[in-house]
């Protein structure tokens, strides 16, 4: 995990997310506490458990975006899931334990990438050596032919005891030995010249014939009750019993190098060690973000039927958050030190509708605020890759320079806030709808346009959007 201070984490999140300082601070402290825990004594480390967080706020205010950006900041396994995907164990659908299996897969990819970086230089060297063997086949056959001639000569002269014959045989043998030495030296000189050209990139278009492993698409055998990984495990077992046969393909040196580097990386990486490191990393530094947690809230069904996708999911989630052991293909994973961050809009239900036992496992609660007109204006201006910049870059590929003036941004923010008040409040997601509607004609006509510069000001915005935004019935369907 990167040694980022809480202030640095908040500053990094500020580059992409406007407002919501309280939520950013809570997440930053939780992430930093993972780093602090790793520096405790082993005895104390076992006692310190993560303080799980639940983020409460309407849609479109930044809950999911905070999680997405946090994943790129933390050099730690991160898994984002939707609570609505899961059902109680024993029913059709994914069970909650698959969240942990997904986390371990993320940890495995992270560790494998680290191992890949470690062995990449050696893999490149090995790949280049194999390319040289393909470009310049070994002269062992020539050596063998010379050696065979010597053997034939030995058989022919074996019974000859005449000194002159023996002397002639010795001279021939010396000549053959010299011939082999010259062949070897010539081969090495040619190989060195080829290596220099290969490293200089002069042979990239040369064609070579290479055996390539055929990728096989695994057949899914089980789809429920935690058996979603059996297909891959069985495929791995079959590969060990009956190894795949490579298929000969003619590739350029550039293409062949990529294939050979991947093959050498696979040979150099110890998969078992990667699995062990992945489990340790997931247990000590793993972060699970559970979105839409409010969708599994609510009282039990009055009909008496089991509510397997709501109360059932909560019951199954409880032991995982509290701490249990989950079986994965790489080994058993203990979940007591994994950090869980849950988020939900809670329009219909309340956090208190969660099971009391589950509520107690999320001691930190953060409420995210609704976004207003000023927030929308900041979202359009401040983030590193703001929506306005995205559209400018897209249209620049058609040779059109779009200038969005400051008064246009203010007008867009005002319209977004107005439509959210009149219809359903979907937060910052409204800006995507409005921007798409604003630039729809421009995006359609861009390939045929002769103008190189288009200025978008407040008048342009009102011309395109006023009629729709002021008609409440129409805006419900279009904006």
TrEMBL record:
GO terms for biological process: protein unfolding. One of its GO terms (molecular function) is peptidase activity. ATP binds at residues 18, 60-65, 291, 357, 429. It is found in: Cytoplasm. CDD domains: RecA-like_HslU. The keyword Membrane does not apply. Residues 49-368 form the AAA+ ATPase domain. Keywords: ATP-binding, Chaperone, Cytoplasm, Hydrolase, Nucleotide-binding, Protease. One of its GO terms (cellular component) is HslUV protease complex. It comes from the Bacteria. ATPase subunit of a proteasome-like degradation complex; this subunit has chaperone activity. The binding of ATP and its subsequent hydrolysis by HslU are essential for unfolding of protein substrates subsequently hydrolyzed by HslV. HslU recognizes the N-terminal part of its protein substrates and unfolds these before they are guided to HslV for hydrolysis. This is ATP-dependent protease ATPase subunit HslU. It comes from Kolteria novifilia.
């Amino acid at each position: 995990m990167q040694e980022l201070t809480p202030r640095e984490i908040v500053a990094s999140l500020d580059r992409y997310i406007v407002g919501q300082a309280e939520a950013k601070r809570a997440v930053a402290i939780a992430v930093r506490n993972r780093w602090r825990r790793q520096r405790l004594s082993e005895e104390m480390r076992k006692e310190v458990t993560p303080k799980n967080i639940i983020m409460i706020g309407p849609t479109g205010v930044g809950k999911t975006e905070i999680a997405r950006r946090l994943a790129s900041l933390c050099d730690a396994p991160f898994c984002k899931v939707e609570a609505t995907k899961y059902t109680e164990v024993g029913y059709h659908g994914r069970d909650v334990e698959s969240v942990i299996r997904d986390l371990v897969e993320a940890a495995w990819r992270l560790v494998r990438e680290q191992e890949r970086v470690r062995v990449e230089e050696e893999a490149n060297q090995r790949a280049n050596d194999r390319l040289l063997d393909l470009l310049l086949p070994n002269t062992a056959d020539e050596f063998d032919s010379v050696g065979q001639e010597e053997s034939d000569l030995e058989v022919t002269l074996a019974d000859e005891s005449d000194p002159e014959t023996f002397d002639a045989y010795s001279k021939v043998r010396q000549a053959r030995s010299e011939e082999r030495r010259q062949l070897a030296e010539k081969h090495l000189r040619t190989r060195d010249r080829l290596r220099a050209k290969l490293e200089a990139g002069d042979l990239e278009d040369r064609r070579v014939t290479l055996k390539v492993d055929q990728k096989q698409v695994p057949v899914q055998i089980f789809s429920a009750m935690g058996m979603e990984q059996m297909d891959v495990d069985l495929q791995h077992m079959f590969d060990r019993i009956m190894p795949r046969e490579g298929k000969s393909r003619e590739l350029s040196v550039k293409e062949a190098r990529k294939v050979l580097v991947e093959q050498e990386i696979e040979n150099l990486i110890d998969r078992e060690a990667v699995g062990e490191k992945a489990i340790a990393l997931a247990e000590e530094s793993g972060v699970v973000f559970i979105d839409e947690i409010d969708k599994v809230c609510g009282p039990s069904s009055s009909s008496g039927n089991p509510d397997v996708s709501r109360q059932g999911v909560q019951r199954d989630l409880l032991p995982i958050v509290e701490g249990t052991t989950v079986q994965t293909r790489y080994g058993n994973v203990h979940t007591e030190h994994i950090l869980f961050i849950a988020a939900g809009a809670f329009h219909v239900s309340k956090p208190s509708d969660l099971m009391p036992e589950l509520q107690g496992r999320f001691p930190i609660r953060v409420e995210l605020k609704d976004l207003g007109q000023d927030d929308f204006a900041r979202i359009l201006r401040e983030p590193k890759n703001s929506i306005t910049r995205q559209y400018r870059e897209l249209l620049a590929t058609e040779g059109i320079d779009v200038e969005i003036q400051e008064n246009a941004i203010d007008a867009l923010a005002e319209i977004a806030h107005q439509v959210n008040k009149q219809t359903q409040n979907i937060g910052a997601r409204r800006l995507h709808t409005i921007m798409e509607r604003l630039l729809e004609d421009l995006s359609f006509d861009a390939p045929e346009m002769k103008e190189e510069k288009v200025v978008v000001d407040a008048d342009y915005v009102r011309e395109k959007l006023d009629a729709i935004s002021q008609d409440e019935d129409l805006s419900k369907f279009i904006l």
